[in-house]
Each structure stands twice: as structure tokens, then as C-alpha cells.
Fold each of these.
Amino acid sequence: MAFPIKVCAVCSEEFELKPDKPGFANRCPECSAPKEEEPATKKRMDADERKSLSEANEARRTAMRELLYRKDR
């Protein structure tokens, strides 16, 4: 039984779509391999960055609440 021939969406190379192939069905095995370049640890934030992020999120929530639940007069 022959496997279907697909064309990779990333590099446009043809490959055989085999069962239990890791990754996406429209990408070849080389393009489906996970990238090792991603950082393993998250960037640490100090107290000022956390506070400013928290304030920005609160402002976003307040603005969305006002837009969603505001009564038109």
C-alpha cells in the first residue's frame, strides 16, 4: 500500500504522509521537527514590571466592561 504524496506547506518539498508521523499533516518531517531555539526558561519580571502589567490588565478589563455593559442613553 502506497502512502499519499503531499507537498510541504513550508518548504514546498514532496513527502510521503505516513501513519504516526509527528507534527502537522501538511508539513514534511524536517519542517515538523520542534525548534530547539525557543528559550527553556521564562524571563523573570521584577516588582515594577509586574505592577505595571497588573495595572494595564485592570485598565483593559475596566474598558471592556464599560464597552460591554454601558447603557446607551
Amino acid sequence: MKLIPVSTENRSAYLNLLLLADESEEIINEYIHEGEMFAIEYENKIVGVALFTFPIELVVELKNIAIDPNYRGKGIGKLILSDACTIYQNRGYSKMIVGTANSSIENIAFYQKAGFRMSEIKKDFFKKYPKPIYENGIQALDMIMFEKKFR
């Protein structure tokens, strides 16, 4: 498994992968050119993407992580988070944050298993999306924020 940096001008080529984690192309276009993006290579094939932004000093935000459904459940996501935390900790960042919808039951469990703790709820965050999002029979309304401190 390897993280391959993606230049700003080539990021649109990964839109289909980004859409696996964020259903709104309009919203993705608001952040696609921010921060650092990495293609995720596994067994010599691009199987996912991760995009990190830097909202405030010493804080890195995992803005989007998506793994091709055929490669989920193999521990790739957990490895990516571990590698990314190491990279950004070594660069002097103090923590990583990530948000997911109240309806994303699998993601909520995933981030906690990866060592993240709930830190905040952004009420009505998903009301700004062009179309309502439903997962697990639940409407996505609120963003649950998680954080993992490096020190």
C-alpha cells in the first residue's frame, strides 16, 4: 500500500472516487483544489483517494477518503489513516480531525476503531447539500466531528 501525491491540476481525474465518500459533486468542487491529495495504490492498482486540508494552524483535516468498494474490508483505510497521522505528526501537526454524517454508521465505528474521539457536532451541516442524503434509513443532517491528538 502506498500514498502517491496528486497534483492540483490532476485532481478532477479522481472525482469518481471522491464521490464514493461525498455524494455532491458541487460540494467536492468547493474543496478539491485545497490541501494535499493522495492516490491510494494497492497491489499496483489505484484503489482509492485521500484529501487532507489545513483549516487552522497545526491541525490537519481528513476532508475525503474513499476506497473502491471491491477493496474495502482489507484494512487499507486504517493503514492510510495510520500513515497519514505519522506523516503529519512528523511535520509538526498536533492533531487530525475528520467529520462524517450522523447517518454514516459504518464511518462512525471506523473512526473510533482508528483511535479518533468524538469532539463536536455541527448541527444541520448537510442541509446545505443540493439533495438530501439518506444512509441506513437515516437522513444525513448533522456532521459528527472526530479528532485524534498526536501528542
Amino acid sequence: MNARLDFHSNPIGAKHVKYLASAGQALLATSVPKATMELMALRISQINGCGFCADMHTKDAAHAGETPVRINLVATWREATVFTDPERAALELAEQGTRIADAAGGVSDEVWANAAKHYDEDQLVALVSAITLLNALNRLNVIIQQPAGDYQPGQFG
């Protein structure tokens, strides 16, 4: 399977992806645990059906030391006992922030209040920024049918 477009070899596409990547770089300084960010990214990618991003975030999470059990259970995090309350709050925020069209009104006040109970303002900004960025990247890869399976941890620096 080949992608419909090679964004990296197209001047406009390469510039666009570069800007998206630089937006992601701003999130590296957050105090939100890397594991939480990767688990959120994986869950968002699962919801959006982005095989490329699900492959990437599964492998990046494992490379960063995340356990196979937690990686495998992120799709069913509500029923799993292996996630902390802050991780659950982040995963629920990620789900509602991704499924905006499915939930009249977007992210509920209850979900926001729960996230705010576990994360300070800077961390909430990082979580919301990560959710929006991941949704944009998922959509790009789904639209161009970017194939999954060949990603190597650290491939994009």
C-alpha cells in the first residue's frame, strides 16, 4: 500500500508537516508525563482510525518504557485497572475532544473539571494542544492513506 500523496517530497506538504512538527516541539517542555501524552496520542489515533499514528505511538510508548499491558488496554481504559486517576482524566478529555461531533456541546463541564482537578493550567494547555495537534495529524494521514507498520521510534527526531 502506498500513500496517495508524499507530503515530505512536496514543497507545500513538507512545509506544512514541518510547521505541525514544530507545534509538537512546544509540548516537549510540559510537565505532563510522557506516558500520559503517548497513551492519549494512541487513544486519539485509535478513535480516528489512523493506522500510521497508532503504529507510531504504540512503538514510541513501548520505547519510552510503557508496558505492553497498558498499551494494549488503552482502547478499553474505562474497564482497565492499570491507569491512574490523572491518566483517566486525560484519556477522557482526549476522547471527548476528539469526538466533538458525537457529543453535543463538545467537552462536558464534568470532564473538564475532572481534568482540572489533576492538572494545572500549563498542563491543561499542553493536553488541549496535544489533542488538537494529534487530531490534525490523524486526519492528514487518514486522508492520504499513509501506510502503517514501518515506523521506527525516533524516526522524526
Amino acid sequence: MDILDNRFRALLADKAVPLGSWLMAGTPVTAEAMGCAGFDWLVLDMEHVPIDYQDAYQILQAVGGTPACPVVRLAWNDLVQIKRALDIGAQTLMFPFVENAAEARSAVAATRYPQPGQAIAGTRGFAAMHRASRYGTVPDYATRANGAVFSIIQLETPAALAQLEEIAAVDGVDALFVGPGDLSAAMGHIGNIGHPEVQAAIADAARRARAIGKPIGIVGPSPEMVHTFISYGYDYVAIASDMGMMMRQANAFITALKPSLAKALDTGAY
């Protein structure tokens, strides 16, 4: 694959539903392990994880040596943050908490270099020497970089879902993503994405995205919930996170062992 071919775009072109997960641990070692585990894509979360761009740089390097495709969720829809993420080699970006078409348009513009004749008025600042251009060794990087970007717009409130079609119609918006956690909170059911009202909104978003031919994704906490989302028509799905899976398994081990350890102490076995 060409260095400027977008791997996430290729994943969505496949017939299968790509499976991802979230990187919350903030370490290259865990990220690399998750990339080797069999996931199709992994979200480097810069919104809720206390990492800086040096950390993100190393995590992208780690995931880059695995079969998984990295996706960078920015902390905010901000021109400087977008530029820095692109310069360290991110090609697929997720923009949190986009509420309307104007905000989506601003996000997309920040991923593009200004170029004559292009439909999108790019606002990305130019630098010749960074990881994205392989430190200047990709000679046509500046003229081809715009086509390497894949923009995922995250819808996290009823107000954003109400404008799904308008947001999806913005030139350069490649895919949508429903954030079920914030959506449940905004609907008055914080922490309960299984609530019937939240599930109805999630199902409706998938139906409407399908109707206009725009790929849409989501994340769920369990295989059962993810299967439900696939049945609604979601095109790409994620399950839990590295930290979530680690804590869940740790709790399962502790729950299984604590009673027997207490019994052994009572009987003098230890």
C-alpha cells in the first residue's frame, strides 16, 4: 500500500464490519499489544487520556508496526491540535462533540493544505519535515497529503443527531461516529446506553446514515451490545478499551480467587 493511501478508508471498502477498540492506557507497549491482538483499528484517545503529542507520536509508531489501523481522537476540534496530529503521522482523525455543519466544515478545512482549485478551503499550516512526510523523503507529500486524510465526525448529543444529514453532507466528512456515552448523558440517562430511549436514538442514527450512504460507527461495552449495534446497521464498531478489558479481567480473577484464599486462611492451608 502507498504511504499516502488511507488504511481506514480501505477497511471500510471491505465487506466485513471492521472491529476496533480504544487505547486508554496511554503507553506504546499496550498499544502495540492491542495492535497485535487482531483488532482492525484502534482509537488513540487524546480527549480523555492524559497524554501529550510526544506520547501520541510514540504510540502511533508502536501501532504502525502492527496490522491495526490507528485512529486519533483529538481533544477538541481545534486548528492547532489538528495540525500537530497530522504532522506526527495521523491520517484518520476523529473529531469529538461536533454539533453542526459549520463545526464539521471547520474540522475538515484544518486537515487540508491550501491548494488552488480544491473545493475545500484548507487551513492546515505547512511544514516540510515531520513524520507524516517521512521526514521529507516523500517528495510529493504536500500535493497528495489532502487525499490521505480521513475525517470522522463524532455526534454526541440529540442536537447533533438532529443535524446528521447536514453534517454528513459537508464536503470532506468521510464518516460519522455516534458517542453513546455522552449521548446517554445528554438524554438524561448518564451511564445507561442500554436505556430504550438511547437505543432508539442510536438505531435511528444508523438508519438515517444508511439512507444517505454515509458510513457510521459506534463503540459498545460488550460483545452483546456490539452485536446489537451491528444489527442496527453500523458500518464499523469498537468494543471497550484496553483499560476496560484489563480491569474487567482483573476483577474476574479477583472475584474467582478471593473466596478460596479466605477459606484457605481459615483452614490454615497458608
